[in-house]
Write a structure and sequence with these properties.
Chain lengths: 689, 557
Amino acid sequence: MKTDKSIQKNSRAKKAARGSIFRKDLVIQAAKRAFIMLNPKIMARNPVMFVTELGAFMTTAVLAESVINGKETAYTAAVAVILWLTVLFANFAESLAEARGKAQADALKSTRKTSDAKRVKENGETETIPSSALVKDDIIIVSAGEIIPGDGEVVEGAASVDESAITGESAPVVREVGGDRSGVTGGTRVLSDSLKIRITAGSGESFLDRMISLVEGAVRQKSPNELALTVTLAGLTLAFLMVTVTLYPIGLYFGIELPVPTLAALLVCLIPTTIGALLAAIGLAGMDRALSANIIAKSGKAVELAGDIDTLLLDKTGTITIGNRQASAFFPLKEVKLEDLARAAVTASFGDETPEGRSIAELGAKILGTGAKERPEGRIIPFSAQTRLSGLDAADGTRYRKGACDSMKEYIMQNGGKVSEELKEITDEIAKKGDTPIVVSAGNAVLGAVALSDILKEGISERFARLRKMGLRIVMVTGDNPLTAQAIAEKAGVDDFIAEAKPEDKLAYIRKEQKNGRLVAMMGDGTNDAPALAQADIGIAMNSGTQAAKEAGNMVDLDSDPTKLIEVIEIGKQLLMTRGSLTTFSLANDIAKYFAIIPAMFMLAVPQLSALNIMGLSTPESAILSALIFNAVIIPILIPIAIKGVKYMPMGADRLLKRNLLVYGLGGVIAPFAGIKLIDMGLTLAGVC
Amino acid sequence: MSITFLILMIAAAVAISWPLGKMMTWAMEPAGNPGLFRRPFEKLLALIIGKAGENGQGWKSYLFSMLAFNAVMFVITYTIFLFQDKLPLNPAQIAGMEPSLAFNTAASFTANTNLQHYSGENGLSYFSQSFAIMWLQFVSAATGIAALAAMSRSLAGKKTAGNFFSDMMRASFLILLPVAFVSAALLVLGGTVMTFGGPVTAHTLEGAVQTIARGPVATFAAITQLGTNGGGFFGPNGTHAFSNPTFFTNIIQTLSLIAIPMASVWMFGRITGRLKHAGVIFAVMLLILVCNLAAAVHFEAEPTKALAGLNAEQSASGNLEGKELRFGGSAAPLWTILTTSSSNGSVNNMHDSLNPITGLTAMIGMWLNVVFGGVGVGVINMFVFIIIGVFVCGMMVGRTPEYMNKKIETPEMKLALLALLVHPFFILGGTALFAATPWGAETVANPGIHGFSEILYEFTSSAANNGSGFEGLGDNTAPWNIATGLVMLLGRFLPIIFCIAAAGMMSEKTAVPETSGTLHTDTPLFAVVLLGSVIFIGALLFMPVAALGPIAEYLTL
């Protein structure tokens, strides 16, 4: 019962975090932090907003001077207030994104706070300590019904574990020593048996903790593209600083002394404050979107890099096809009757409890009637990974067997039988279609083969088609033979495949792709995947996988869902697109602001310049204030786009660019003309100016 | 008639640029087996520059050679100007130059600007004209071609940027010299003066004695136009009857002043192996040129406001102030636009007399400085806009921006932005400094708005390495000489340094393969992007001064 509750609580928390962008508690938290961030030391990280704050500061100084000398102050005060608001809006945007990320992480973290841990001391005794006191390499014991207190690796035992708190998936999973299912996550619950676990991350060091600190900014570093964009924005700010500062002496030539607040207003309007204010929020929101998809990224850089991926390495099983193959047809040899083959196959499959084996029985029952499902007398030869065959020694002495092609050949030869040319033809034909042949025998005679078909996941080929349109190369990795692999590759529509893949093949393939300048992403779970995960530019380890795999990758997928790779790439692309689109929008806005401010500034010296006042703004003061107000309020208005990301559609680069240019470029030119005019009308109506 | 003339001229220029671009590529990038004509040249080249020309240079070493070479040229010509009175070939007995003027002149010609604060025929001896000025008109243009070749090679992903000394020889002897020879021959045929004889003394009908300057004008005029130099043998260069006597010579000179800048775009496309991309760049440049030209022709068709309402108002033929009537109606705005777009700076009419908006179109050409621009450097300047456009738009397609298969990251952006900032910094900073101080305010001929335009034009022309003058400015003063001298040198070499460095750094990166997810730079859509970045950045940087100068003047007249 407790488990259900925690699932509910967890999913509710997650839903809330993903829900409305302006959630009340987060807004309050962010608003408070917006003021704390006014500290110039924090502002200096963001050159655009730092210059804005400087402008606000200078205007305030002028205001103070005017108040002391009893000059007219209304206009200066208005400029000062709007400038400070601009800075606060920017801080608010960043804090809000940060608060959302934190809320998201807290929701994941909430289940794992208050558990106790049974630590095994060196003398073998156990002691109970709070989970927060655990350090790396501690050995703990977790029994049925208890919560695993931290991330670790199973060193002894096997147990079923409920991981729904992390993944939302209610079916329990098996975690056992060795193999690829040895990783356990803090906050999950052991349902049966008990596990001895070596803690791999002390309190505060788990992947989740790392991600939380990334979001909280403690270790937040600008990712490469974010850094390049910051440099670009700083360069543009410098350019506009030049434009504005030189206007003062030029004004002197015309015999006017331009007031500092007006120059500050022009400067702030021109520099790309919109993108400058939202840049940090966009990056944080990218991390947050990853977290919403249950992906823990080890750095912001990894999320950003995902957008650049050229080649995707996908495991066939579980990603492209549903996990289990199913029997689809019987192929008897010429002299053998279909029914005989079916009966022998069904009989031999009693030794095979895997879904594949069961599917052979199902298919047989369709031909022979349901009675065939009843188990005949005899000794069962169970399927094993070593022999790769299963069977039944019937009471009459006939030994029925079925199994993989090569192991069956070996078996038949050993028993003095012959493998005909005809069988080879049949099995080749099956393989060519992308199916796996299972050879069936009775005694030492081969009867024929059963085709096991891979079933493609629904919609997977459409999804691949979209990915390929975006320019991605998709490579399927499979243990199948090249013929089978080829057929499935064609059906699913992938670009290339690695057949009979061994872990080192993956690594070699990744290296080859990288040598050609391609960025490669892959997903893996096993220890033998670790080198490839480390080599890949994006390596996503499944949470169910081994510790080695998780350490090697740069992301961990809590759901252990192989199709996640695709989502991660989309998140990365969306992140970059949002940055580009809002930068374009921000710069495009400047045209309208020029038309508002330039005539207003110089109307005194050259009255004819009012011809440039194409928006018909009522007074010079109103024109400048309107432009400045528009510049400020556009920041909170765009927060939802920054946080949700611009609409992403999988299409070729050129179409994508055309769309975004129209919406954010052309839109960015037009919108402020309307906005500024409206604000001006509002100000005039209110009688402010 | 005038529209047909303009269309024919532009079409002829475009037509010439194509084979010329091929020839320039052939000269700069000898492919495999040198032909019959080429082999002896290469042998001679090896003989002259010896070991220095053997190996390819990395971008740093290439830049170092280029700067060192230009520094040496600067010092030598500076010395020649100072001491020209003690040097031979001075039949008119012209005195040595005043040091600040000599500095300005040496800087001006080293930087391929040819801003002239002296008047050619009276300020320089034949020796200075032929061995300092004409020499620099060749090598400064060759430097531009070499710089573009180096940048293109880096962008093409080659390991070295080439060899500066070989490039200089090739650009001078295989491109500039032969083309200049043809052009000079045509000019002589058309009647341009060509003599080493001294000035002629003439006795007028009224009995006055007049000294008429002559000289080796045709050769001078040829390289002046071809190398986007612009400094005439005579002060008023293309307007002077000895330099540009007829309609025919005017056509030759007009075509030659835009030919190599246009061909440079094709050379860039050929060396980088992206001819289609070059086509997009060419189209964008051509479009801006044509629009600017249309505006200039339109506004120059109005008579000058000064004569409005008077009997002398020439309403039918437009603004005739400062024009040479022998060239016909639209030849003046055409030359004005081409010379300011291409960083040439020679004139066939007086820019100070242009109607305000025509004056603005001239300044726009120089502010953008990429509408074909100077020999070689026009494409280098365009590279800055390409990088910025690709960076912003590359993000919009959801990838780290790439150009020519190389990722654009922080170091490249830093260099591109520095290159971008140099130009407005010198124009706006210089104008502000001189407008607010007596250095500038007291040298203007017309106080008020037009005077501001004069100051603005002078710094614009210097920073753009154009060299044309709005005139009307008493600019031969120490502050003007020193300030514009510095602006010309830094405005010339800083962008070259930043761009070659950026391309060099890109050449060191691993190439990223092109996919359908990559932003393509050879499509009409990219032309829109590039046009947008040029117009947008240009407008944002220069709109305030444009409004205060020419636009205000237009509105108040």
